[in-house]
């Protein structure tokens, strides 16, 4: 088995995908008010090279990650983050997360892609991180519906 890989998860959301994309592209500091797993986000989004530091819960533990925005593509509604510091890098040599929003008519999907390089063969695939991110996406959707 290789040390590098990619895991992908997709979830349908019922509110417009442009709203979700705007939050991750421009207003990541709003995410903690929408979900319980993200405790705080410091820094600014919106531009490639921006740094964002977040505290979050994963597997029942509070963790920290510092991410750099590596890519923004408004046409594809895509934002890519690369983890440069934090707890994730205790198990992974490299770790990046890409959020891409797909909208057509009344259908809106959020696809999260995690690309990684494990430090050793014994490190598990980052499926629990993917599940945490998908849970955050659904909790943001629930927050959106509660506001209506």
Sum this structure up briefly.
By secondary structure, the protein is an alpha+beta fold. 21% of the residues lie in helices and 48% in strands. The termini are far apart.
Write up what this structure looks like.
By secondary structure, the chain is an alpha+beta fold. It has a single domain, classed as START domain (Alpha-D-Glucose-1,6-Bisphosphate, Chain A, domain 4, 2-Layer Sandwich), CATH 3.30.530.20. 21% of the residues lie in helices and 48% in strands. The protein contains two helices and seven strands. The chain has helices at residues 17-26, 127-147, and strands spanning 4-13, 38-43, 51-58, 61-73, 78-86, 92-104, 107-118. Strands 1-7-6-5-4-3-2 form a seven-stranded antiparallel beta sheet.
Produce the secondary structure layout.
Layout: E1 4-13, H1 17-26, E2 38-43, E3 51-58, E4 61-73, E5 78-86, E6 92-104, E7 107-118, H2 127-147
Antiparallel strand pairs: 1-7, 2-3, 3-4, 4-5, 5-6, 6-7
Oligomer: single chain
Q: How large is the radius of gyration?
A: 15 Å
Alpha carbon gap, first and last residue: 47 Å
CATH topology: Alpha-D-Glucose-1,6-Bisphosphate, Chain A, domain 4
């Amino acid at each position: 088995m290789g040390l590098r890989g990619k895991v992908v998860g997709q979830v349908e959301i019922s509110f417009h995908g442009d709203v979700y994309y705007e939050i991750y592209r421009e207003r990541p500091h709003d995410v903690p008010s929408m979900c319980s797993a993200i405790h705080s986000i410091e820094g600014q989004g919106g531009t490639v090279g921006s740094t964002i530091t977040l505290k979050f819960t994963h597997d029942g533990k509070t963790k920290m990650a510092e991410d750099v925005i590596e890519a923004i593509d408004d046409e594809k509604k895509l934002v890519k983050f690369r983890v440069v510091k934090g707890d994730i890098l205790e198990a992974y040599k490299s770790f990046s997360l890409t959020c891409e929003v797909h909208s057509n008519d009344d259908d809106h999907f959020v696809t999260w892609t995690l690309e990684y390089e494990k430090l050793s063969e014994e490190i598990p695939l980052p499926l629990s991180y993917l599940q945490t991110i998908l849970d955050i996406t659904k909790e943001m959707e629930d927050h959106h519906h509660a506001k209506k």
